[in-house]
Amino acid sequence: MKKMKKIEIVLESVYTNKLLELFRKNGITRYTIIKDIEGNGEHGLRQADEVTDVFSNNYIFTVCDEQVFLNTKEDIRSFSKKYSGKCIVSDVMWLL
C-alpha cells in the first residue's frame, strides 16, 4: 500500500476544461469525471437534467503523490477563488 492524496472537486461544468488544463500543467494526467451531478450548495439547488452545461455541475477526482498535491495546491486554491467550486483533499492508501 502507498500513501496518496485524493483530490475531489465539484465545479460548474463550463470550467471543467480549465481545471483539466491546470491538472496537466501540474503533471496530473489521470482523473475521473462524473458529469451532471446534482446537489444543494452555496449556489442553491443544481439539478442533473439541465439542457445546457451552464447550470450543471461535474465531480472530478484524482489520486496523486503528496508532493504533486503540494505543488498543485495553490493553483487549485486560486482556481476555486476565481471559478468557484469545492475542493476536498484527503489522505488515502493506494492498494498495490
TrEMBL record:
<dbReference type="InterPro" id="IPR002187">
    <property type="entry name" value="N-reg_PII"/>
</dbReference>
<dbReference type="InterPro" id="IPR011322">
    <property type="entry name" value="N-reg_PII-like_a/b"/>
</dbReference>
<dbReference type="Pfam" id="PF00543">
    <property type="entry name" value="P-II"/>
</dbReference>
<protein>
    <recommendedName>
        <fullName>Transcriptional regulator</fullName>
    </recommendedName>
</protein>
<dbReference type="InterPro" id="IPR015867">
    <property type="entry name" value="N-reg_PII/ATP_PRibTrfase_C"/>
</dbReference>
